[in-house]
Amino acid sequence: MELPWTEKYRPKFLKDVIGQEKITERMTAYIKDKNIPHLLFAGPAGTGKTTTALCLAREFFGENFKDGFLELNASDERGIDVVRGKIKEFARTMPIIMDFKLIFLDEADALTNDAQQAMRRTMEQYTKTCRFILSCNYSSKIMDPIQSRCAVFRFRKIQRTAIKEYLKKILNIEQVKFTDDGINAIVEISEGDVRKSINILQSASVIGEVNEENVFNIASYAKPEQIRWILKLAIDGKFLDSRNMLDNIMLNYGIAGEDVLIQMSREIFYVEEIDDKTKMKVVDAIGECNFRLVEGANERIQIAALLAKIAILKY
Does the keyword ATP-binding apply (predicted)? Predict the structure, then answer.
């Protein structure tokens, strides 16, 4: 069975990781030094945190890296029992390949406070035999005593040009036809998330040519110009036209209410006909609507109310 493209084209070496050159340079220096401190990788999803950890382990230990490498996901195993059980058991045994082993704990910000306290103690006790690599979206959710024991690396969203080149490379290998509009649409939707962009790419390639129309349909994402037009209609006071157009888009693309708001919050800044003061008011209204949706309000009513609120801004 063929692997998903996210795994099939996951880089195996640090030099192949895209968009994080400064971080991979530091990792390469650790490998040459044959010494790795505890590491904390923080940043948005799909920016290479897990890939960098796997590449680091492979280059440090060789092809049999799994003998000295333990990978866990804290979202699945987040309690104190995991730290006292699996992690402590692996950390306390002597390494076979190198002077120490590596434990990679993905989504470490999901660990409970008690589990983090236990982890801090484990990191202190077994530094000689084991080093930790913690990965998280928000470093603020990792307690300060753990952060102070780690070298912190902040992963940034991948630049659009780097993602475009990587996607084109995959398409050429897979011999899939594509258009530049299709690639641009994927980059627009993924917002610097390489994993998301590759998933959309593979889904769109199943239909045939990777073009703009296929990409937006597969991703359940409205075209940016459509969202801008809806906002412009609402601000011009054409509430019914705005609402009808939004209803059609949500029906045709199957977009959830929160996703619509996310797109609106991005596209409002590109509507040239609106002054900055009005844009501020629209953003404030979008934020209030998003809060209500998160609290469980009916999305169709709340989004219609948002458009109505925008429509009376000039009056």
Answer: yes
- pLDDT one-digit tens code per residue, 117-143: 888 888 888 888 888 899 999 888 889
Instruction: Provide the CATH topology of domain 5-154.
Output: Rossmann fold (3.40.50)
Query: According to the annotation, is 43 in a ligand binding site?
Result: yes
Q: What's the CATH number of domain 224-311, 1.20.272.10, 3.40.50.150, 1.10.260.40, 3.50.50.60?
A: 1.20.272.10
Pick among 3.90.10.10, 3.50.50.60, 1.10.8.60, 3.90.1150.10: CATH of 160-219: 1.10.8.60
106-122 burial, b at 16+ Cβ within 10 Å, e below that, comes to: bbbbbbeeebbbbbbeb
pTM: 0.83
46 is in an annotated binding site: yes
254 is in an annotated binding site: no
Tell whether residue 161 is among the known ligand binding residues. Answer: no
Percent with pLDDT over 70 in the chain = 93
Radius of gyration of the chain (CA): 23
